[in-house]
């Protein structure tokens, strides 16, 4: 919504969960260049998302300041999502996408999905399913 050229700010508070549409999300990713960005599509109701949540918490803290992490919470309720974020101690922001429009427009099916954007904002890596710490770190190293 709003001016298509206007920058999109990331919330400081991981519990803010601002609702975004695919266009706003694309502008958000573009606005973060030249910092690499790890996007994780998740839902609080998704068992594999719970499986990988501690990995994302640990790796996002390890690379803080060098890589941006952004969650896309899909098909969820805000309060359940906030509970999940608190439970796993995520310190990075997520956007709220109750209809999974961002995921669907990106051409993905299922969740969790992890996508790494390089310094130019191009997709450098895509992973469907719970990601291991080893794989995530190896792929982050490639875009640093």
Point out poorly predicted stretches: none
Strand order of the largest sheet: 3-2-1-4-5
Q: Tell me the Rg in angstroms.
A: 14 Å
The share of residues in extended strands comes to 15-25%
Number of strands: 5
Sheet with the most strands?
5 strands, mixed
Question: What is the molecular shape?
Answer: globular
The helicity comes to 25-40%
Distance between the termini: 32 Å
| Count of individual helical segments | 5
Mean pLDDT: 95
Order of helices and strands: HEHEHEHEEH
Derived structural class? alpha/beta
Task: Quickly describe the structure.
The protein has 144 residues and is an alpha/beta fold. The chain is 38% helix and 19% strand.
List keywords for this structure.
144 residues; alpha/beta; five-stranded mixed β-sheet; 5 helices; 38% helix; globular
Q: Care to describe what's here?
A:
The protein has 144 residues and is of the alpha/beta class. It has five helices and five strands; from the N terminus they run H-E-H-E-H-E-H-E-E-H. Strands 3-2-1-4-5 form a five-stranded mixed beta sheet. The protein is globular and about 35 Å long.
């Amino acid at each position: 919504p709003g001016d298509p050229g206007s920058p999109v700010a990331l919330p400081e508070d991981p519990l803010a969960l601002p609702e975004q549409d695919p266009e706003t999300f694309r502008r958000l990713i573009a606005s973060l260049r030249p910092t690499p960005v790890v996007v994780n599509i998740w839902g609080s109701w998704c068992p594999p998302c719970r499986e990988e949540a501690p990995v994302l918490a640990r790796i996002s803290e390890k690379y803080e300041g060098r890589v941006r992490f952004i969650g896309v919470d899909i098909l969820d309720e805000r309060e359940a999502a906030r509970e999940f974020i608190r439970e796993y101690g995520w310190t990075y922001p997520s956007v709220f996408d109750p209809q999974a429009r961002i995921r669907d427009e990106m051409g993905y099916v299922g969740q969790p999905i992890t996508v790494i954007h390089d310094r130019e904002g191009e997709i450098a890596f895509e992973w469907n399913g719970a990601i291991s710490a080893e794989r995530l770190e190896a792929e982050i190293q490639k875009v640093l």
